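[Discussion] Sanity-checking designs against the backbone

I'm trying to build intuition for which residues belong where. Below is a structure token string of 598 positions. I'd appreciate it if someone posts a full sequence so I can compare it with mine line by line.
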């Protein structure tokens, strides 16, 4: 984000002195920005002919073929017709009026649908497809395409050891595109293809300023590796996060093949790159597309919204590809759902029946419970405990522990209790603040506690407001309050679950309330899946993330199982099968078993 270029629009200020002193501003949009010129269905089968037609078309506006070729970033020619090109505002407006043009879309940034929680810990939970996966041979013969941040090909989840001798499906026409630290030897019979798309984001942001990024399908973010392995990772025994929640990790369709389309970078994704990813995925012959990204919350119609995912998925579905997408993480507020085009399978997130309870023992021996995924940062024994307001420079603004608010003289060596504001869930920011002030632990009270974060240097425990208030009243009563923070445990089966995650974006669909969205919900809180060796050194290839980004590939995996059983089923049939048979999978505990429709 920091690398974002300053606004490209150059403003020329011309001061005109007339009869009276009068100042006028003349805006000259001499600078070009990337626009997507969307032209609907393709007119020719031959992609070369389509590209040529784009050059011809654009040269009528720009004056020459050379100028047209120079301006075009991408020609969309497999799934649909259109191109991304650098255009001035005037040129874009002119093109929008020309026959054959459906819409001209300024290249915008889309976001990944995780919460801010990285380095989560937990267990990959996958009960609902147990029977389906046995009957469907675990997705064998199908190809799941992932439009995301790329892949870490060395992850055990992408090993093809268990893929048998089955050849790559004959309908596969993709490639393994090489780049920085990535070449064809990184693909195998599990990971059959990988491509990367960077022109759209490069035009906006200087991606080369991020030294951690790879100019290749290799994943420097983690999101894409995580979602790909949730959809179709092979079985990996004893997967765990820092020793917790060890178990068998597997994707929804462990025998499905994966095709990776890296269109997203640490700073986000652009419409131009995402549309090219759809175009190529349609060409390559994927069966299912998993797209855990989204636009801002829509306000108008599908068309006015300039929604590149709606456009790309429309053409994918017309070619028989099932498209699954995430609902967004802007809940629990109503009308926050995105990816609401009726042809997309839109997925919300639920909790699973697993928790990481962590005991907080107060000086009066009262034991209260929160949740945490911080292992190995526990200070044994009792430590001083205080409330942020008592140690803040400005008591009015400090109960959420925002950065810079705490007096280090008073915070040093203490466990600090902070309350989130109702509208934010920024435990990471509070953790940084506490760490900088020399605190040794953070108890963070929130309204909505779904999704856990690891705090890098200190022990963080999330509690609900009720527990937070109990701790606060102890602090107020005690002469010198102390507390002991324990290590988290992994507990299965004794929660009311699944429950729609607080962050999962809610309907109704603001554009067409009659089109019910989301279509389905799936696990998306504290999901363990493959992760690149980036960030903390003690992560052994698996991490916990939360978000509708994590629930989306669960459904993509199931869609591949169905496709494997019924090769001739259309995306509409697969969607129908999913939404009419989706059922609440109660947790193992009989006490909490309920039969509710999901
Ligand atoms: C799934 O399979 C198990 C074991 O084969 C069986 O007991 C169970 O009834 C099946 N469930 C459904 C919904 O078919
Ligand atoms: C591909 O990468 C591997 C490891 O980085 C390297 O050993 C190999 O020579 C490369 N192969 C090609 C064809 O470039
Ligand atoms: C991008 O960043 C690199 C490295 O900082 C710099 O050399 C280059 O000039 C930048 N390019 C643009 C277009 O800003
Ligand atoms: C921080 O707290 C100490 C100890 O109470 C106090 O002396 C100091 O003035 C405080 N610092 C600020 C900037 O308020």
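Best answer:
Here's mine. Compare freely.
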């Amino acid at each position: 984000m920091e690398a974002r270029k300053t606004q490209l629009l150059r403003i020329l200020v011309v001061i005109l002195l007339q009869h009276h002193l009068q100042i006028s501003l003349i805006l000259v949009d001499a600078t070009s920005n990337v626009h997507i010129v969307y032209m609907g269905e393709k007119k020719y089968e031959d992609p070369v002919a389509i590209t040529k037609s784009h050059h011809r078309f654009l040269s009528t506006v720009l004056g020459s073929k050379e100028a047209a070729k120079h301006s075009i970033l991408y020609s969309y020619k497999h799934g649909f017709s259109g191109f991304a090109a650098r255009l001035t505002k005037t040129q874009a407006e002119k093109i929008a009026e020309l026959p054959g043009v459906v819409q001209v879309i300024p290249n915008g940034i889309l976001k990944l649908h995780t919460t801010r929680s990285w380095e989560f810990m937990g267990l990959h939970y996958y009960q609902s497809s147990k029977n389906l996966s046995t009957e469907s041979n675990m997705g064998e013969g199908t190809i799941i395409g992932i439009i995301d941040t790329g892949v870490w090909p060395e992850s055990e989840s992408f090993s093809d050891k268990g893929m048998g001798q089955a050849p790559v499906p004959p309908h596969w026409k993709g490639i393994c595109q090489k780049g920085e630290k990535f070449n064809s030897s990184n693909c195998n019979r599990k990971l059959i293809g990988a491509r990367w798309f960077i022109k759209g984001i490069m035009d906006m942001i200087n991606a080369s300023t991020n030294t951690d990024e790879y100019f290749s399908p290799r994943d420097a973010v983690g999101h894409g590796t995580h979602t790909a392995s949730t959809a179709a990772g092979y079985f990996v025994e004893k997967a765990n996060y820092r020793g917790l929640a060890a178990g068998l990790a597997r994707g929804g369709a462990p025998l499905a093949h994966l095709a990776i389309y890296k269109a997203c970078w640490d700073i986000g994704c652009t419409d131009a790159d995402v549309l090219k990813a759809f175009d190529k995925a349609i060409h390559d012959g994927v069966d299912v597309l998993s797209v855990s990204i989204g636009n801002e919350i829509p306000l108008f119609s599908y068309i006015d919204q300039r929604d590149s995912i709606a456009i790309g998925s429309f053409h994918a579905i017309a070619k028989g590809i099932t498209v699954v997408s995430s609902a967004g993480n802007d809940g629990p507020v109503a009308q926050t759902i995105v990816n609401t085009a009726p042809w997309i399978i839109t997925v919300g997130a639920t909790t699973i029946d697993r928790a990481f309870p962590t005991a907080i023992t107060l000086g009066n021996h009262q034991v209260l419970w929160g949740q945490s995924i911080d292992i190995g940062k526990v200070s044994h024994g009792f430590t001083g405990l205080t409330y942020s307001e008592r140690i803040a420079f400005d008591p009015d603004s400090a109960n959420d522990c925002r950065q810079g608010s705490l007096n280090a003289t008073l915070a040093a060596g203490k466990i600090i209790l902070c309350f989130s504001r109702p509208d934010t869930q920024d435990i990471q920011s509070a953790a940084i603040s506490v760490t900088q002030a020399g605190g040794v632990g953070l108890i963070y009270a929130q309204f909505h506690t779904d999704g856990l974060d690891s705090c890098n240097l200190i022990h963080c425990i999330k509690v609900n407001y009720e527990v937070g208030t109990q701790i606060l009243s102890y602090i107020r009563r005690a002469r010198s309050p102390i507390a002991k923070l324990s290590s988290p445990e992994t507990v299965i089966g004794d929660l009311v679950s699944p429950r729609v995650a607080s962050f999962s974006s809610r309907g109704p669909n603001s554009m067409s309330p009659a089109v019910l969205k989301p279509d389905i919900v799936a696990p998306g809180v504290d999901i363990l899946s493959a992760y690149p060796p980036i960030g903390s050194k003690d992560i052994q290839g698996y991490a916990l993330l939360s978000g509708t980004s994590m629930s989306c590939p669960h459904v993509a995996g199931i869609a591949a199982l169905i496709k494997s059983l019924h090769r001739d089923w259309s995306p509409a049939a697969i969607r129908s099968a999913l939404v009419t048979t989706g059922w609440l999978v109660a947790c193992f505990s009989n006490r909490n078993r309920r039969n509710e429709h999901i």
